[in-house]
Design a protein that fits this description.
The chain is α+β, with helices and mostly antiparallel strands. It has a single domain, classed as Fumarylacetoacetase-like, C-terminal domain (Fumarylacetoacetate hydrolase, domain 2, Alpha-Beta Complex), CATH 3.90.850. Helices cover 14% and strands 33% of the residues. The protein has five helices and 18 strands. Strands 3, 4, 5, 8, 9, 11, 12 and 15 form an eight-stranded mixed beta sheet that branches. Strands 6-18-17-13-14 form a five-stranded mixed beta sheet, with no helix packed on it. A three-stranded antiparallel beta sheet has the order 10-7-16. Keywords: Hydrolase, Metal-binding.
Amino acid sequence: MSLVLPAPATPTVAVAGSDARFPVRRIFCVGRNYAAHAREMGKDPDREPPFFFSKPADAVVDSGETVAYPPQTENFHYEAELVVAIGKGGCTIAEADALDHIWGYAVGNDLTRRDLQLAARDVGRPWDFGKAFDRSAIIGPVHAVSETGHPTKGSIRLAVNGVVKQDADLAELIWSVPEVISYLSHSIALAPGDLIMTGTPAGVGPLVPGDVCTVSIKGLGEISTTIGPRD
């Protein structure tokens, strides 16, 4: 088969303790999966069915890189997240079997153009311009399940310039990781290389050029991102 254009490179993220890389196929994100964050966004935290948005695979950025302050926003936010890396695909996955489909876990930061997201939300339009922009998915090294097990509790914390802004526990997830995988797989067939960002705790807020943003999750280490000037 010939291609009329060169095929794009496969986006990848680091693997903890290895020179190998994890190939990224798609990035799914769970919205408002911590009750306190739902409240701060002006929404009811009742346990309604989860909803999802997505980011392009090539939005991934490794820890330690500088991310330029993005265009068309004056309200650029951080969001600490637990990231699930899918290693075995499937559809209509039973909740009891969901953990068997996970290759590993990582620390993530769902960067958001909040003003664009809220403007779209308020008129019932998609969130893409607020969420799915270039270099908007900071993903730390993926830790294999064989090394870490399946984290169900433990600190998830974000700091800006050393000042803690988000401080919660993974046990506070409204929808657990197995529930999220099962629910999503009943609508979309999951595949190896898919990443799921599982939602952010309360305390989201702005970043400005010069800020250093760190996110840590117990057992998964810490990631760091410096915010650069606008391109």
